[in-house]
Amino acid sequence: VELAGLFTRAGEATSRDNRRLVRPPNARVVLVDAGMVANLGLDEQRNFVGFLAAVGEGDGRDAGRFVIQWSAAQTCVSAEAQAAFVEAMAAFFATDCRGYGTEVDLGHVLRGVLTIVRIHQVRVDVNYATLVMNALCLDGLANSILPEYNVLDAAKPLLRAYARWQKLAKGAGFKLFLPLARRVKERTDRRIYRQIMQAQDLALDPSTM
Questions:
Q1: Which of 56, 83, 188, 196 is the most buried (most CB within 10 A)?
Q2: CB 150 within 8 A of CB 126
């Protein structure tokens, strides 16, 4: 799973007066933390990226069903316990995660999911826990560098492509359309960046003060 590819926003720096963001041409930043790397099997990829796609769609029930698959030795096993967990996820999403374009705070959503996991005693294996921590770190980093940039909305082209094509030929469909999804994401990033720059220019324009 190219988790960083779903979330990272690279190449921002501040200008001399620290009032305006500038992006050097073709700038790229790659962050690698060897202590937060997880080797995932196909099922783990499907369960985690499927969860992220459900978050993007604001579908708490679907997200809850994926989380239940986050352990091969699940402790939340009865139908009643799993149903209660899924409904708790749905209730949380109804108020705190309405999907793309609604200014979802991914870090808040992930912390909320972990709280529900704890309350309902849902077991999470170490690889999934590592991925959640990675996502929290990336979201926090993005918020620190560029608060106006929403990592979930930016990941929409990739997550939508995954949800649509991963079932085709056992995942081969997603791999086939991944380059196209990446290009769409890059165009979306450039559009968002231009909007942010225009807003900053307007804020710094003396005639508007």
A1: 56
A2: no
Q: What is the pTM of this model?
A: 0.71
The residue with tokens 């997550």 is 159
* DSSP one-letter string for 141-208: HHHHH-TT--HHHHTHHHHHHHHHHTTGGGGHHHHHHHHHHHHHHHHHHHHHHHHHHHHHHHHH-GGG
Please state, in angstroms and rounded to a whole number, the distance separating the CA atoms of residues 64 and 66: 5
Amino acid, res. 188:
T
pLDDT in tens, 4-57: 444 443 333 333 344 444 444 455 555 556 566 667 788 898 899 999 999 999
Angstrom distance (rounded) from CA 91 to CA 101? 19
Q: Do the Cβ atoms of 8 and 138 come closer than 8 Å?
A: yes
Per the listing, tokens 């962050």 go with 31
- Map residue 77 onto helix, strand or coil: coil
Residue 8 burial by Cβ neighbours in a 10 Å radius (0-12, 13-18, 19+): buried
